[in-house]
Amino acid sequence: MEISTLLRWLGSILFKVVDSLGLPLWVAELLQMISAAAIVLGAGLLVVLFLVWWERKLSGHFQQRFGPMRTGWHGWIQTVVDGVKLLQKEDIIPKTVDRKVFFWAPVLCFSVSYAAFAVIPWGQGLWPTDLNIGILYILAVTTFVVIALLMAGWSSNNKYALLGGMRAAAQIISYEVPLMLSILGVIMLVQSLSMVKIVEAQGGIFGWFIFKQPLGFLIYLVAATAETNRAPFDIPEAEQELVAGFNIEYSGMKFAMFFMAEFLNLFLVAAIATTIFLGGWRGPWLPSWVWFMGKTLFLVFVIIWFKWTYPRLRVDQLMEFCWKVLLPLAFLNLIVSGILFM
Amino acid sequence: MIEPAPAQYTEEFEVNMGPQHPSTHGVLRLLLKMDGEIIKEAEPYIGYLHRAIEKICENRTYNQCLPFLDRVEYVTSMSCEEVFCLATERIAGMEIPERAEYLRVIMLEFNRIASHLIFLGTFSLDLGAITPFLYCLREREDIIDLFEMTSGQRLTYNYIRVGGVAADIPPEFVPLARKFVNMFQDKVDDYEAILTENPIFLARTKDVGIFDKDMCINYGVSGPILRATGVDWDLRRDDPYSVYDRFRFEIPTGKVGDTWDRYMVRVREMRQSNEIIRQALDQLPEGGTRAKVKPAAFKPPAGEIYTRIENSRGELGCHIIADGTTKPYRVKLRGGSFTHTQMIPEIAPGVMIADLVAIFASMDVILPEVDR
């Protein structure tokens, strides 16, 4: 709660300053938008910093080792150090790449993941914006990731990268379908596409949509894991087959962009699942953003858990699973919830 | 089936898989002709790790050869030492002390477990499951500690010598070995819990890369790959050497010869090796560990011999021609990995690149043994 009042206070100060300087009002609005975007970017990068460290610690403990330990308390500063290292690295651009596409692919990949954060409600009154087509916006924007990965795979002029890019395109487009259908059930119940409305529709623990749409939740979780290209669905960058997949030729900060985008996506799908199925920021006693972060990080933990437990599917099995198992189930879920809703 | 219009045909392209690639287990280079994800042709190129070890052995005395032989197959160094010493002893008609024979068996079987643990780890790694690899290396570490306290080395032991073994085991070896033997079956259960019945693991391995029994025999395949096709053939039982005839153990065989069978045969072999070590520790006699040999002036009579032992990668053979001097006239090694690598052009066409990685990992080829 305090944070949202702080933001409102910041906004009013901004307006007063602009007013006293005699500038038109749209300058204040623009400044407010930019500051909101900066706050979201800062929050997103903080989340990435934390998640990278957290995944390394978790994977370490899953595998009976410690993970990073040397830098800071239990290695908490490790990601920062790695980031600095990546910034300093030489940016290698192979001779035969398509330079323009090669340059823009990581930028696009990162920015679409970041753009989707615009409608995430982080807590009561804590959202950058409340679009009335919020969920549709997220799904539409994140689809651009496909284009970014394809650009990276194609422009690298490397056969492994090309295979990785093709795999990524096939996989993400396929899993988009059950993902969307699994959310549709909830949208029918709420009768709104707004993220805030969806959270507000879930009162009390048993009002959470996970209890009304359990199958939808499971389908979403599986499809979302595939959307983020994480194991057991990490075929686009399958290390043992394609060495590194679409980002094989990338180094330095460009690689870091892909890397950050992956973790932003990971957080994003967990945040969407929290918002749609787990009641978003709702919960007793604690501040709303604590509830939101807690639930989201729990889901992130589950997805990381998948990665360090399961082997990887083969590319054709992945497609089969999507079209022959997930899609019929998603339709079934949709039909059943439609009948119940009537 | 809809025939694609001529314009829609995809172009075949060549991929150089290796010598630097995460899953070629060293420096194998595969030249793949691919149609999208499907392999049309595969050709292995070997020789990146050739160190002329067989030639080097011709210029060394018999005991000086052993450190080089360690490097032939560094995952199971003990086997390479054993096969060479066995050949030399047979030429010389030498009797070696019983305690040394038992120690050799214990070391060989420990090394077989260590080798299969490496297989299990890298195999699961190649399927994308990263965690079992670290579990496997955890247990391998215990075995390597045992080797270290005995021979002073962790990878290339130089422990088995002509006429026996280099040194007796230290007093704390037997209790620690017993501790390992008692705990290991549970650990194998752990590995199996994470892999054997996992649906994704089954999808990736069941009915993938089926090796035909006749094809395997024609290519001279041996070891776990041959046993996975259902052929009951194990040199430890069928051509006994050392004191293997004194232990009770089963020879695990597969049914279909697919990737899962090859995995399962090795997992069950680890359990059997564990039982052999248990029996060997129980029966371990007292006595000396080395027959009387003058290391520098050891001259076996002129003669020619081929010996073979069951290595963790199939038959490991050693052909020695002795000319009555202190140095062998010719040493030829026969490694399982070399034979198995030949099969790649036969099995690769038609499989997907992910399957080729899985099949190749399940063959457990190690490149230094291929190139020598």
What does it look like?
Chain A has 14 helices and no strands. Chain A is globular. The model of chain A has no long low-confidence stretch (mean pLDDT 83). Chain A is mainly α and 342 residues long. Helices cover 70% and strands 0% of the residues of chain A. The longest helix of chain A has 38 residues, at 25-62. Chain B has 372 residues and is of the alpha+beta class. Chain B is 48% helix and 13% strand. In chain B, a hairpin with a 2-residue loop joins strand 2 and strand 3. The chains are: A mainly alpha (342), B alpha+beta (372). At the A-B interface, helix 7, helix 11 and helix 14 of A face helix 4, helix 5, helix 7 and helix 14 of B.
Write the layout of secondary structure elements.
The complex is a heterodimer of chains A (342) and B (372).
Chain A: H1 2-21, H2 25-62, H3 78-88, H4 99-115, H5 134-142, H6 144-155, H7 159-190, H8 195-200, H9 209-212, H10 214-227, H11 239-242, H12 252-277, H13 288-307, H14 315-341
Helix pairs in contact in A: 1-2, 2-12, 3-12, 4-6, 4-12, 6-7, 7-10, 7-14, 10-12, 10-14, 12-13
Chain B: E1 13-17, E2 29-35, E3 38-45, H1 53-58, H2 62-70, H3 77-92, H4 98-126, H5 131-151, E4 160-161, E5 164-165, H6 173-195, H7 199-205, H8 213-219, H9 224-228, H10 235-238, H11 259-283, E6 303-311, E7 314-322, E8 328-334, H12 336-341, H13 344-347, H14 353-363, H15 367-371
Antiparallel strand pairs in B: 1-2, 2-3, 4-5, 6-7, 7-8
Helix pairs in contact in B: 2-3, 3-4, 4-5, 4-11, 4-14, 5-6, 6-11, 11-14
